[in-house]
Specification:
The chain is α/β, with parallel strands linked by helices. Helices cover 24% and strands 24% of the residues. The chain has two domains: 2-81, 2-Layer Sandwich (Alpha-Beta Plaits), CATH 3.30.70; 107-208.
Length: 209
Amino acid sequence: MIRKIIKIDEEKCNGCGACAVACHEGAIAMVDGKAKLTREDYCDGLGDCLPTCPTNAITFEEREAPAYDEDAVRQAKIKKSGVKLPSVASQLSQWPCQIKLVPVNAPYFEDANLLIAADCTAFAYGNFHNEFIRNHITLIGCPKLDEGDYAEKLTQIIANNNIKSVKIARMEVPCCGGIEYAVKRALQASGKFIPWQVMTISTDGKILE
């Protein structure tokens, strides 16, 4: 993406290190006696380091750079401070969760908000439990690795239970289209009119519009 980010003129840098101290995100480090922007994804583009430089070696520029990763910066600060993160509670409310293994008439399907997710989504999106699994009955699968078609079993689950809504979580990669297609076929074959939506997650862990 094109965004504002700092630029350090190595010839003007006198190696005082003031900018590295001023950078709250830890994007700047001293390398061989010179200031270096070592983590572009840690630079927020606000320029707290600029006024501290006695030689005016730091300026702004707009160029292609990774997006500012606020979560990574926060994790780095916590790791540096030695503070341990609290464990995050799982939001999974039933077992099993694999599409191939769940019973068609399991009691937890009654009045359920159903989440049907590709396996990789939970690994790609950091807050998947709280934003997706929470308050949902979760079914997962991988159309590329699993044999057979999910549509028939999903049709039975939707047709034989009072499902309130269906959310599909898939990756942006083409093979994940299989799970979306299977759910759509199942909804159509069930003969029911149920609210449904598709959420697509990018390979770098963002929800795509």
